[in-house]
Amino acid sequence: MKALEGLKVLDLTTALNGPFCTTLLADHGADVIKFEPPSGEQCRTWGPIDEKSGESGFYAFLNRNKKGCTLNLKNEKAREMFYELVKDADAVVENYRPGVTKKLGVDYETLKKINPKIIYASGSGFGQTGPISHRPCYDIVAQSMGGMVNLTGYKETPPVKVGPSVADHVAGIYLCVGFMMALYYREKTGLGQQVDVSMQDTIFSLLENGIIMQTLAGITPQRQGNIDPSIAPFDIYPTNDGFVSLGVGNDKLFRKLCEVIEREDLLEDERYATNDSRCENYVGEDRLQGIIQKWCAKKSKFEIEEIMDKAGIPCGPVLDMKEAIDHPQIQAREMMVNIDHPTIGPMYFQGCPVKLYDTPPSVDTPAPTLGQHNKEVFDLTDEELQAYLDEGIM
Questions:
Q1: The pairing of beta strand 194-198 with beta strand 336-341
Q2: What gap in Å lies between CA 358 and CA 2, rounded to an integer?
Q3: How far apart are CA 234 and CA 283, in angstroms?
Q4: Are 210 and 151 spatial neighbours (Cβ–Cβ below 8 Å)?
Q5: Coil, strand or helix: which one is 64?
Q6: Alpha-carbon distance values, 310 to 296, 302, 305, 306 (Å)
Q7: How does DSSP classify residue 33?
Q8: How far apart are CA 3 and CA 10, in angstroms?
Q9: Catalytic annotation present for 168
Q10: Most buried of 230, 252, 282, 344, CB within 10 angstroms?
């Protein structure tokens, strides 16, 4: 038994933010039916590509636990087939540019007339309203226009985006949360509604103290590398075999740090007496930053991790991809799972990060091949299926 068993979700999403939302729903038992155009959705071409099968590993990871159908929604018969599924569906999830679903006849206003209880979750670059809502968007654009890119990197270098597609992933999480909120409301009222999540809004919501620095203190935050402008020491330091991160967020932790690095004299230095003064006097070879750098440079990242762990100081070695995958905590949390894909073969990728103890999530089925479940979902004979394929409906 899984938490969302019995929920029927029609998935019109493509690329990343929408599919990530529906993957979370599917991992927890929702019956997610993914619809693609007959040519397939765009991320079927995104690498890495399996040389043997030609399948996208990206698509395979992001669409596990789903059924797969093809429908040409520009075709009237295809829309009628979709409408039939809407009648007893719980949700439709889409991430087209605003206006596209109306042209296709699968917008919320149309579908709620068919099923007033439908929850219609829309993910997009800039939302369903506003002067630039019509624009296309990818993660790098959302990170830039949400204010995050200008905060990432070092003062002396050009801005850089956060490595992974954080706008897509967090927007997908927000879309999932919005769906759950709408589902709770429907339980009380019997009515569905539209959920609207923007990637730009998502990034903007993650800027935390940067917004308050601007509005309260009148300071426009700039790139500071790994330094936190409001906490010190809070940084990444070179070791003799890599890098390690330290977060020292209060006076008690700072005292422990001084003891660990055998610099209790720093506790008597008024420059480091409070967190604010440590922030003001942190940067420099002859200041707190340089002192910690020199200490870390003599040790390995895992040696420092062990020392700091014993002292109760938040610390983490900077792990490469293999180290992260193999880490005992990642393994213990079942954050890596095995699945057999029908054409790729054995795959090993991320599990579900949302853990429910009585109804745990799991990865049970691989991503569908293109149109794999057309016959099952629409209850077609072989002859009907072939006819629909020949007519360009599927």
A1: unpaired
A2: 8
A3: 11
A4: yes
A5: coil
A6: 16, 12, 9, 6
A7: E
A8: 18
A9: yes
A10: 282
Three-state DSSP string of 294-355: HHHHCCCHHHHHHHHHHHCCCEEECCCHHHHHHCHHHHHCCCEEEEEECCCEEEEEECCCCC
Separation between Cα atoms, residue 135 and residue 319, nearest integer Å = 37
**CA 301, CA 318: separation in Å to the nearest integer?**
8
pLDDT on residue 229: 86
Paired sense of beta strands 345-350 and 336-341, if any: antiparallel
Question: Letter for the amino acid at 313?
Answer: I
Exposure string of 175-192, with b = 16+ CB inside 10 Å and e = fewer, is bbebbeebbeebeeeeeb
Beta partners for 341? 345
Name the phi and psi angles at 131, rounded to 5.
-70, -20
Write out the DSSP string of 105-127: T-SHHHHHHH-TT-EEEEEESS-
| Residues of the chain scoring pLDDT < 70 | none
Residues 6+ apart with CB under 8 A from 357: none
Q: Could you say which of 11, 31, 107, 168 is catalytic? A: 168
Query: Going by C-beta distance under 8 Å and a sequence separation of 6 or more, which residues neighbour residue 95?
Result: 12, 13, 14, 15, 17, 18, 122, 123, 124
Contact 32, 26 (CB under 8 A): yes
- Helix 17-27 crosses helix 166-189 at what angle (to 10 degrees)? 50
Q: What is the largest CA-CA distance in the chain?
A: 85
Residue 239: phi, psi to the nearest 5?
-115, -175
Report d(CA 342, CA 53) in Å as an integer.
9
Q: How far apart are CA 66 and CA 31, in angstroms?
A: 7
Q: What is the pLDDT of residue 187?
A: 97
Cα separation of 192 and 10, whole Å?
14
Q: pLDDT tens for residues 97-116?
A: 999 999 999 999 999 999 99
Q: Which residue do the tokens 């057309």 mark?
A: 374
DSSP-derived secondary structure letter, 374: H
